[in-house]
Amino acid sequence: MEQFHFHSGSEHTINGERFDLEMMSVLSPLKNGTYQYSHTSAVEGAISILFSVDSYTVDFSPRQQSIIDNFFDQLKWEDTSSPTVDKISYSDLMELVDFSNRFVYQGSLTTPPCRTLIYRNVLSTVYPISQKHLDQFK
């Protein structure tokens, strides 16, 4: 994975509905320790996970909800000048989400450098996020 970032107010909609938060993970192949890009074929991918305070589409056990809460708690919001974190439970979150139900299309990144030829995967399940964690994006 190259990086992940957030959009407060999702970029993607489902049935015309925009959600509170979208987390986008950008995936690029590595070769000799550097990310490789192609201008002629789609070799990169992006996975979007949607979150909502009220309009989520899955009910979780307290243990499952704690995985989402722990992920957002580990982000260092107090220092927005340096968004790099030492350790985060990204894999725990990825194991929780449903990759089998998604929308797929070929597009581009929406943040610089706005590379084209990206396979976009938008997961159709909307996950719960607490208002406390959502407020960190405002």
Describe this structure in words.
It contains 3 helices and 9 strands; from the N terminus they run E-E-E-E-E-E-E-H-H-E-E-H. It has 138 residues and is α+β, with helices and mostly antiparallel strands. It has a 5-stranded mixed sheet with strand order 1-4-7-9-8, with no helix packed on it. Strands 2-3 form a two-stranded antiparallel ribbon. The longest helix has 12 residues, at 62-73.
Order of helices and strands: EEEEEEEHHEEH
Instruction: Quickly count the helices.
Output: 3
Q: Span between N and C termini?
A: 26 Å
Structural class, by secondary structure, is alpha+beta
The strands making up the biggest β-sheet line up spatially as 1-4-7-9-8
Approximate strand percentage = 35-45%
Return the average pLDDT rounded to an integer: 85
**Strand tally:** 9
Alpha-carbon Rg, integer = 15 Å
Largest sheet: 5 strands, mixed
CA-based shape: globular
Low-confidence stretches: none
Helix content: 10-25%
In short:
With 138 residues, this protein is α+β, with helices and mostly antiparallel strands. The protein has 3 helices and 9 strands.
Topology:
Layout: E1 3-8, E2 13-14, E3 17-18, E4 21-27, E5 30-31, E6 34-35, E7 44-52, H1 62-73, H2 90-96, E8 102-108, E9 116-128, H3 131-135
Parallel strand pairs: 7-9
Antiparallel strand pairs: 1-4, 2-3, 4-7, 5-6, 8-9
Helix pairs in contact: 1-2
